[in-house]
Amino acid sequence: MNLFRKKSIGSLLAYAEKKETSLKKALGAFDLTMLGVGAIIGTGIFVLTGVVAAQHSGPAIILSFILSGLACVFAALCYAELASAVPVSGSAYTYGYAVFGELIAWILGWDLILEYGLASSVVASGWSGYFQGLLTGFGIHLPTAISNAYNPAQGTYVDVMAIVIVLIITFILTRGVKESTRLNNVMVLLKIAVVLLFIIVGVRYVKPANWTPFMPFGFSGVVSGAATAFLAYIGFDAVSSAAEEVKNPQRNMPIGIITSLLICVTLYVSVSAILTGMVPYTKLDVKNPVAFALQYVHQDWIAGFISLGAIIGITTVLLVMMYGQTRLFFAISRDGLLPKGLSKVNPKTKTPTKSIWLTALMVSIFSGLVPINHLADLTNIGTLFAFIVVSMGVIVLRKTQPDLKRSFKVPFSPVLPLLSILSCGYLIFSLSSLTWLGFAIWFVIGLVLYTSYGYKHSLLSNKNIQ
After folding, report:
1. Is the N end or the C end of the chain the one with fewer CB atoms within 10 Å?
2. pLDDT tens for residues 271-327?
3. CA nearest 86: which of 378, 348, 404, 315?
4. Residue 352 backbone dihedrals phi, psi, to 5 degrees
5. Which UniProt keywords apply (predicted)?
6. Four-CA torsion 256, 98, 320, 111, nearest 10 degrees
7. Which domains does the chain have, with CATH numbers?
8. Which element (helix H / strand E) includes 197?
9. If 0-12 CB within 10 Å is exposed, 13-18 middle and 19+ buried, where does residue 225 land?
10. CA 328, CA 134: separation in Å to the nearest integer?
């Protein structure tokens, strides 16, 4: 069995241009940047900031976001290089196929299904919580049984609003990539305006005394906070899923990936500093820390704007993460490792409709039935694993194909890719043993699927593509 058979980069690019399986090229650098910001600024800034400050880092949450942000910046540079060299749908899965071979590609693809699918489910659950909070403000309360995921002890069985938002996003995605990104761009600009409003208003209420003690849980708290905060940055890699739908991807992909991440790191650090300066960190363990901080200083009307901005922000995260999942199913199916129907493209909208609906089914089941706390850590471990392999891929491809055209190159290679591997490795080993067990079970299920279906149906197995 040739488990490590590779697809040449030339064949990847040629096959992506085939009419029956090609996607519409409609996106520019601005669209990609907005996709990245849309994916990153959401649950992290409106929810995780309070949790990380109260439970892990205290005011040193600033350092937690800088640490996890640095790990992501290193990984983003690696993604940018591979995206400029191999502008094909599939993100890390496709890069793995070209660099390491089919088995590693499948493992990465299966891993990304875990990342995008569970991240989408986490975000849909978060959206449901914020939206129900908004309804409560108008005196509307959903029946307890349909207000949250399955938890008989609390009388909840299904999160109906999480399923509703997933179906709405699904409808938007089926309309076409340009239509989806146009809506995303508008929502992203609105939520950036809301975050800037918080910064402008909040900085007037900062009390430096609230930053003391700065590191109440020690440096180990900063590191564990960084591992949790890492979830906030997940999403920039979804930008690389759009490579096949980008005009001039060699130029625009690196711009979109790097610019979006730098914007988001700046906003996260700024919001964290102001948040812990406005409110003692011990009081921030709430579901809506940004709105809570404004209520704390009696700026209730602005807090209302923030809550609305949070709903818009979380919506864009869900849109981009589900988009990334659909393109992943599309890419894996096109290679024969999943049923071929998933790579069929609607001739009118140029979207992989069956992949979109499969994603909707998967995310609806997880977000509607599985409690959110069981989903978040598995999302982190899947992403960190993908970042490590992509960073390794840059080093390997520099050695094996030094003459490959790259419009963007990671500076100081192999030092920065190695820093990406080490920083992501440090964070991944700080996750719990239970998370590792769940990841191992998912890994084994993936191997069973590959050996029973993927290996036999692969295009490389049938020698249809060299």
Report:
1. N
2. 999 999 999 999 998 777 888 898 899 888 888 778 788 888 889 889 988 998 999
3. 404
4. -80, 85
5. Membrane, Transmembrane, Transmembrane helix, Transport
6. -140
7. 9-457 (1.20.1740.10)
8. helix 177-202
9. buried
10. 34
